[in-house]
């Protein structure tokens, strides 16, 4: 008994030694080596968000290079003689995901480097995000130069957004403290260092000045809380050196992304994009008492939507953040009305189906949660409300009476009509309710819900027939913009992915954009980042991975230097206007599409490598991916004319998709079978390894 | 940590006893513990009962309840619904249990869920997010339900039903609204204004399609 116990420390030590090189590789590059302007930036104006989970305000690093928290603008005016440094070109996160922000402004002979990161609050429930900002002025001239930085705390002028708890009016400028004291201030300004430096207070403005020799640098530092603090508290916060704040931020976020499922694909762009999505989704959560709720965005969408929150919950669940996803489900409970409907915004009747879908996505992966009976009961109430609506509608005898009544969502379809997406999501909600009830041991109730789902599905198909449309319209009346109808096949599972209506819809939507990629919203020039991602997953399921890959490529391209996607933007001017990134659903869509391309588990078969890029086949590896059949590890590799898969056993059939441009050569070794498409191989339950000989696909 | 403390205390107790302590019989110790536990539970139950029985001091006198109610309603009439809520809540805390207190508190909650104020000079919802708005609506519905049960006259019950219908209609639940309008009609049959209201709404329901509300033109 005691022997193995004594050996444990040695084993642990050995494992630690073996893992050390792998862990060391995860360390981000040192800040000084990081050039923000080397980072791609898709949009005409660069911006970034410094956020923290549970913080009630975030800091926007504005395209001008200032900081704004929804109440105060911290204006930074760097000058060198007559030259004022222009706005930064790129505001970038390290490796385009790690939220240590860098931006550079160059004016005259002085280069200004800015580095900022958020500090965690003092207490676990502290909602005041405090940012540490270091400013480094470097003289690039061969002679001495004077660098001057004026810092002002001003009320915003025509703000893009305002914090929910900002006062009614902000007339007077704020102030920065330079010494401890009981008075509150909007920030702290430390004494500058390097060169011959000085700090002068001129009214509400602080001016830092350095006289710098050739090649030398001066350093300034600001500590900026999202809510004003006393001078004493600011002085205390400022005692933590900037370098330590940055090191802590790197350590914290590196650990955070490591605790989710890991995707090693040999594709740094995709891996970094996934991490950026994880950071965004983890940060866009707020507390309400003991509950957590998902928010759409830290700035102009600082609110709770069922439609965005459901996507965030699903993404967190499949990325391995099970606890966070389930906490958000508990937050959704507050959005259920007494009669059973889930509604967060006026006229958005898709919320009920989305809430039920989100519960199922989070509570049944990687294993049934203890709270499933409770959520099954909520789902049952929601299902009863929808059935009641359908009964009333059917009794009316109206043309589309069996479908949900009209909605005016002030979003998405932008019409008042009976929206196809509302019914599609409701049907998805029925499937989820049945799964939740079944998991709660209520097989009879699950079967009853399934029967009503079959009837609803038949009514949906009959309604689609009555529209006489080749595709799937946005509303049963035919009007509106494409939105909820794009989700009919995936994730709603109402029509098969290869249904001709869905194929026609994808053709119509992509034709407007000039090919598979992002969807168009309204005017042809207006691109929508995430709504077309469902067509990407549909393409994967329909055996069209190249279309899905075009969607993914567009999503990867249209990101900021900090790795975030904007909801809408102009294709020609590359401007997102006032619709600031990051957007939670943009992050959820990108992460969801990558995950679906590798692991898809919504049906009765586990589908692997549905849309794995050729590059990923060099040595793809996924660890701890939550599925409906437990945590999954997967390795896949193409070596010459052979494809290998090695994965955790599951109690269902597994469908393996071959690498792009290949097909099965010769016969398959037992127990593998040919799948429904030429490029798919089926493995029976319990299989853990498969090897298939390949040949080039016929052109 | 706490386990160590407990054992240290036990050791001290053993030393303090002086001389070899007689090993207590396990059975008698259990009985003693059980009796002590039962006594403790009984004391807790008694204390609870005593505290629960004590009548809560009236927070608001009946006279001031009416004043609070009128103040809350007056603020609502000026569009300051959120500001009126504390007044209406105080009226509800009084011993006066009047159906209109519940009905008007519910209505004020509903109206406040749409109230627009100003922050940093920009127009903004006075509520933080939809989560708070729905919490208000849930409470509004509960208050209207109480009012419907308390309202003594058909005219008043019909009024409550119309408010429920308006709430459902404004939030985009047209069939829920239709059912409530019909309930109002059935409470006061033969009232042409109620019948007209239902008919107008039915026409809207039948001709479902129309331009959507875009508000500021923003996608949300």
Question: What would you note in describing this structure?
Answer:
- Mean pLDDT of chain A is 94; it is low at 1-31.
- In chain A, strands 1, 2, 3, 4, 5, 10, 14 and 15 form an eight-stranded antiparallel sheet that branches.
- Chain A is built from 14 helices and 34 strands.
- Chain B has 220 residues and is mainly alpha-helical.
- Among the domains of chain B are: 57-150, Alpha Horseshoe (Serine Threonine Protein Phosphatase 5, Tetratricopeptide repeat); 152-206.
- Chain B has helices spanning 2-16, 26-53, 62-77, 81-93, 99-112, 130-150, 154-170, 174-187, 192-206, and strands at 116-119, 122-125, 210-211.
- In chain B, strands 1-2 form a two-stranded antiparallel ribbon.
- The two termini of chain B are 54 Å apart.
- Mean pLDDT of chain B is 80; it is low at 1-26 and 215-220.
- The chains are: A alpha+beta (699), B mainly alpha (220).
- The interface between A and B is large, with 65 and 41 residues.
And the CATH topology of the domain at 57-150 in chain B?
A: Serine Threonine Protein Phosphatase 5, Tetratricopeptide repeat
Bin the helical content of chain B: 55-70%
Order of SSEs of chain B: HHHHHEEHHHHE
Per DSSP E runs of 2 or more residues, the count of β-strands of chain A stands at 34
Rg of chain A computed from alpha carbons, rounded to a whole number of angstroms:
27 Å
Strand content of chain B: under 5%
Q: Provide the residue-averaged pLDDT of chain B.
A: 80
Total strand segments of chain B: 3
Show unreliable segments of chain B. 1-26, 215-220
CATH class of the domain at 57-150 in chain B: Mainly Alpha
Ends distance of chain B: 54 Å
The profile of the biggest β sheet of chain A is: 8 strands, antiparallel
Please describe the biggest sheet of chain B, giving its number of strands, its sense, and whether it closes into a barrel.
Answer: 2 strands, antiparallel
Number of helices of chain A: 14
Shape of chain A: globular
């Amino acid at each position: 008994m005691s022997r193995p116990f004594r050996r444990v420390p040695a084993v642990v030590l050995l494992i630690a030694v073996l893992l050390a090189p792998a862990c060391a590789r995860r360390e981000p590059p040192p800040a000084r080596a990081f050039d923000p302007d080397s980072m791609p930036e898709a949009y005409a104006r660069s911006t970034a968000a410094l956020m923290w989970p549970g913080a009630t305000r975030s800091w926007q690093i504005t395209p001008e290079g200032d900081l704004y928290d929804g109440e105060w603008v911290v204006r930074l005016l760097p000058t060198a003689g007559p030259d004022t440094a222009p706005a930064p070109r790129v505001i970038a996160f390290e490796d385009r995901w790690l939220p240590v922000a860098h931006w550079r402004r160059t004016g005259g002979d002085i280069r200004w480097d800015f580095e900022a990161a958020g500090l965690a609050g003092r207490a676990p429930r502290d909602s005041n995000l405090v940012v540490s900002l270091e400013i480094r002025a470097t003289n690039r001239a061969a002679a001495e130069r004077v660098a001057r930085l004026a810092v002002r705390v001003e009320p915003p002028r025509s703000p893009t957004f305002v914090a929910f708890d900002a006062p009614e009016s902000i007339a007077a400028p704020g102030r920065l403290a330079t010494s401890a004291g009981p008075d509150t201030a909007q920030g702290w300004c430390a004494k500058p260092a390097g060169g011959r430096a000085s700090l002068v207070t001129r009214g509400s403005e602080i001016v830092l000045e350095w006289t710098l020799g050739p090649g030398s640098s001066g350093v300034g530092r600001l500590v900026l809380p999202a809510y004003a603090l006393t001078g004493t508290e600011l002085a205390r916060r400022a005692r933590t050196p900037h370098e330590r704040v940055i090191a802590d931020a790197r350590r914290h976020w590196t650990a955070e992304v490591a605790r989710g499922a890991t995707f090693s694909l040999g594709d740094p762009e995709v891996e970094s994009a996934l991490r950026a999505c994880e950071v965004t989704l983890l940060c866009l959560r707020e507390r309400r008492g003991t509950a957590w709720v998902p928010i759409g965005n830290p700035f102009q969408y600082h609110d709770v939507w069922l439609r965005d929150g459901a996507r965030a919950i699903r993404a967190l669940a499949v990325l391995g953040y099970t606890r966070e996803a389930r906490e958000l489900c508990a937050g959704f409970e507050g959005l259920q009305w007494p009669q059973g409907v889930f509604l967060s915004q006026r006229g958005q009747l898709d919320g009920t189906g989305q809430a039920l879908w989100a519960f199922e996505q989070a509570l049944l992966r990687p294993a049934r949660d203890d709270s499933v009976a409770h959520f099954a009961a909520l789902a049952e109430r929601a299902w009863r409300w929808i059935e009641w609506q359908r009964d009333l509608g059917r009794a009316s005898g109206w043309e589309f009476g069996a479908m949900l009544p009209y909605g005016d969502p002030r979003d998405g379809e932008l019409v008042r009509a009976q929206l196809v997406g509302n019914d599609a999501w409701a049907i998805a909600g029925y499937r989820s309710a049945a799964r939740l009830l079944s998991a709660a041991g209520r097989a009879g109730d699950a079967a009853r819900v399934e029967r009503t789902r079959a009837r609803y599905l038949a009514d949906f198909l009959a309604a689609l027939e009555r529209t006489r449309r080749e595709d799937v319209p946005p509303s049963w009346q035919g009007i509106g913009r494409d939105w909820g109808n794009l989700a009919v096949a995936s994730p709603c599972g109402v029509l098969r992915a290869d249904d001709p209506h869905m194929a026609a819809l994808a053709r119509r939507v992509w034709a407007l954009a000039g090919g598979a990629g992002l969807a168009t919203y309204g005017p042809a020039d207006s691109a929508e980042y995430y709504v077309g991602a469902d067509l990407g997953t549909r393409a994967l399921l329909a055996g069209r991975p190249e279309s899905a890959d075009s969607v993914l490529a567009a999503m990867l391209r249209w990101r900021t230097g900090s790795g975030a996607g904007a909801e809408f933007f102009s294709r020609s001017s590359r401007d997102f206007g006032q619709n600031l990134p990051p957007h939670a659903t943009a992050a959820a869509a990108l992460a969801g599409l990558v995950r679906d391309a590798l692991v898809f588990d919504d049906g009765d078969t586990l589908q692997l490598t549905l849309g794995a890029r050729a590059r990923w086949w060099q040595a793809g590896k996924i660890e701890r991916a939550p599925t409906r059949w437990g945590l999954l590890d997967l390795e896949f590799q193409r070596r010459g004319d052979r494809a290998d898969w090695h994965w955790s056993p599951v109690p269902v059939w597994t469908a393996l998709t071959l690498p792009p441009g290949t097909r099965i050569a010769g016969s398959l070794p037992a127990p593998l079978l040919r799948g429904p498409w030429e490029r798919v191989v089926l493995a029976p339950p319990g299989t853990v390894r498969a090897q298939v000989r390949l040949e080039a696909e016929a052109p | 940590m706490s386990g160590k403390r407990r054992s240290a205390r036990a050791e001290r107790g053993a030393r303090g006893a002086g001389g070899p302590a007689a090993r207590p019989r396990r059975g008698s110790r259990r009985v003693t513990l059980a009796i002590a536990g039962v006594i403790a539970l009984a004391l807790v139950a008694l204390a609870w009962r005593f505290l629960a029985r004590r009548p809560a001091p009236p927070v608001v006198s009946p006279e001031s309840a009416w004043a609070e109610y009128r103040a809350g309603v007056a603020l609502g009439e000026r569009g300051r619904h959120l500001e009126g809520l504390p007044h209406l809540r105080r009226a509800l805390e009084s011993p006066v249990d009047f159906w209109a207190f519940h009905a008007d508190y519910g209505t004020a909650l509903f109206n406040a869920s749409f109230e627009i104020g100003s922050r940093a000079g920009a127009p903004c919802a006075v509520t933080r997010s939809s989560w708070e708005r729905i919490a208000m609506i849930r409470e509004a519905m509960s208050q209207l339900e109480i009012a419907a049960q308390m309202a003594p006259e058909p005219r008043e019950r019909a009024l409550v039903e119309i408010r429920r219908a308006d709430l459902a209609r404004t939030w985009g639940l047209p069939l829920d609204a239709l059912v409530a309008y019909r309930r109002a009609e059935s409470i006061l049959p033969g009232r042409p204004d109620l019948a007209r209201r239902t008919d107008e709404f039915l026409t809207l329901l039948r001709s479902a399609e129309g331009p959507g509300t875009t508000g500021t033109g923003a996608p949300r």
